[in-house]
Design brief:
- Helices cover 28% and strands 29% of the residues.
- The strands form eleven sheets. It has a seven-stranded antiparallel β-sheet with strand order 8-22-23-9-24-25-26. The protein has a four-stranded mixed β-sheet with strand order 4-7-6-5.
- A hairpin with a 2-residue loop joins strand 28 and strand 29.
- Helix 8 packs parallel to helix 11, helix 9 packs antiparallel against helix 10 and helix 10 (345-359) packs across helix 11.
């Protein structure tokens, strides 16, 4: 059957784990499967329809790997069907009819409502899931529910189709399984052949030792009249520097020719912000003083720390390779696309950022196989009581053309260099409160611009409570905006943050299912509770003294 759009489906449930309906849009026509009574297996009715009419089909659901595909897998196991999870549950292959259930979130990594708005397609409608009604209990609300279900499927199909149009028109490619893989494919086809970048797999251990995350630190835990800055297209702006593309080789110590180095360092103890990252077992530090062990760094970052911040170093070993500016054109083209349509700015920002993320991806992959597809059980462990599905890991040696970790090392190092320079600029002008990867919250007024790598003022806060990494609140025009990683469903008041600032604890009652997350284990979907107690004084990556902090001093 000829299709005009992208096949999509959506599962709705009561309490997340009790399915009541499935919507299915085949790209041309829409149909639905509504649960009729307590005994009705609506998921199996849907799957039976697919098996009888749509063998070989690929269909999408948004966030399928976290939800829809878990329910599909549970139903297939229950009815004795063979299903093969691929890349976790990002893709689920029903072996008999060769039907693929795929997660569209990897391609469009945002809420469906945001994707619809960004891609300018029909808006997702709203439905109050908390009422817990089953179809035969909905009464006159059933029509609204059915329209909501239909819009979810059709709007997702239109969003993916629009994404295909954008990629085809701008680059002449169709999307891969994820935005990051698609970004790497575009870069290789249109800008620079990735095959010409050496993977340096033999040196990958050293390279990954020099790959660090972004800076996330609290400097002052409370402040007023705070300017909130972001660095515009931070990581993509760093694509304009030379990238390590050649085969690495050991060389005599010389920081001017090095690509990455293992070195001992002495960081001045009077610095307010540590200039170099250091990994520990539990956290990423930016200390001062003298770390006891030699550490691997990107040579560009070490050289910057020495020339601008007085770091003394002794190189123990170094690796050199040819470097060229190969990503600049890609970055500039992506930025131009974001300027062309402001509504799609965030999409192209993610697309550009995804390239370095994909190039830095690890080689180990989790795999799940059915017993019929396993030649040897060595290294495999059963996932279900019937021992039909087994989990293991596979190492992609020479079979992963997009894994170039030295590129990711360089981009991340350059981003930290630029972020650090902005932080010290702010610190010289006034108080600084918080930083996270590409953001700076400060009392200083800093120059801004619209180019890649320029600072952008995103707002001004009347007050700010910065409790610890990724736990803070800013007050703007009497409204509180909360950032609370790990506690996103627990809404806190300003009084709560004041209590946390003083070192107290805040406990929230869990009253609804939004404070739970679903998990899949042994063929069943269940719920586990998120934490509900927040502590004000936990271990930090800086030394706490009242509302002020200072860098950890080593040894």
């Amino acid at each position: 059957m000829e299709l005009k759009g992208i096949p999509c489906f959506d599962i709705e449930a009561v309490g997340w784990i009790n399915p009541i309906a499935v919507g299915f849009y085949d790209g041309t026509n829409y149909m639905e499967f509504i649960r009729e009574n307590e005994q009705d297996d609506v998921i199996w009715r849907f799957l039976t329809y697919l098996k009888e009419n749509w063998s070989g089909l690929k269909l999408y659901a948004h966030c399928a790997s976290r939800y829809d595909n878990k329910i599909i897998l549970s139903s297939l196991c229950k009815h004795g069907e063979i299903a093969i999870p691929e890349a976790g549950l990002i893709r689920l292959r029903w072996k008999g009819p060769n039907i693929l259930f795929e997660d569209s979130y990897l391609l469009i990594p945002m809420r469906l409502a945001d994707a619809n708005k960004l891609l300018e397609v029909e808006s997702k409608q709203e439905w109050e899931h908390a009422n817990g009604l089953k179809p035969w209990e909905m009464g006159n609300q059933l029509g609204t529910f059915r329209e909501y279900l239909k819009t979810d499927c059709v709007s997702l199909s239109n969003a993916i189709y629009k994404m295909c149009e954008l990629l085809g028109r701008n680059f002449g490619v169709m999307p891969s399984i994820s935005l990051s893989t698609t970004s790497a494919k575009v870069f290789s086809k249109c800008f620079y052949d990735i095959e010409n970048i050496d993977s340096n797999e033999l040196f990958e251990g050293y390279i990954r030792e020099a790959i660090y995350g972004g800076r996330n630190e609290v400097y002052t835990r409370y402040g007023e009249n705070i300017n909130l800055y972001d660095v515009h297209f931070m990581y993509v702006s760093c694509y304009n520097v030379p990238m390590p593309i050649g085969r690495m080789r050991w060389a005599k110590p010389n920081i001017d020719t090095a690509t990455l180095v293992e070195a001992t360092v002495k960081i001045p103890t009077d610095l307010y912000i540590g200039p170099l990252p250091l990994k520990t077992k539990k956290r990423l530090l930016f200390p001062v003083g003298e770390p006891s062990e030699p550490t691997w760094w990107d040579a560009r970052e070490l050289k910057n720390a020495a020339s601008k911040y007085g770091v003394d170093f002794t190189i123990r070993r170094q690796l050199d390779c040819d470097e060229e500016i190969v990503m600049k054109d890609f970055g500039e083209f992506i930025h131009a696309l974001s300027k062309k349509n402001e509504k799609q700015r965030d999409l192209w920002k993610m697309f550009g950022l995804s390239l370095s993320g994909k190039l830095g991806q690890g080689r180990w992959r989790d795999i799940v196989k059915h017993i019929d597809d396993i030649k040897s059980l060595e290294g495999m462990s059963p996932l279900d009581n019937d021992e039909l599905y087994f989990q293991g890991k596979v190492y992609l040696s020479g079979r992963a053309p997009y894994i170039k970790p030295a590129i990711s090392m360089r981009v991340r190092a350059e981003a930290r260099i630029r972020h650090l320079d902005f932080l010290y600029q702010a610190y010289q002008e006034g108080p600084i409160y918080y930083s996270d990867t590409d953001s700076i919250y400060t009392g200083s007024i800093l120059p801004t611009g619209e180019g890649m790598g320029d600072l952008t003022l995103i707002g001004i806060a009347d007050r700010g409570y910065f409790i610890k990494q990724k736990l803070y609140a800013i007050i703007q025009k009497r409204r509180i905006k909360q950032r609370s990683a790990g506690y996103s469903d627990l809404k806190l008041s300003e009084e709560d943050f004041q209590k946390l600032l003083e070192g107290g604890e805040v406990e929230k009652d869990v009253e609804d299912l939004s404070s739970y997350r679903s998990i899949y284990k042994e063929g069943e979907v269940s719920l586990i509770e998120r934490p509900s107690v927040i502590k004000g004084l936990n271990s930090e990556n800086r030394i706490l003294s009242g509302i002020e902090t200072s860098p950890i001093c080593l040894p």
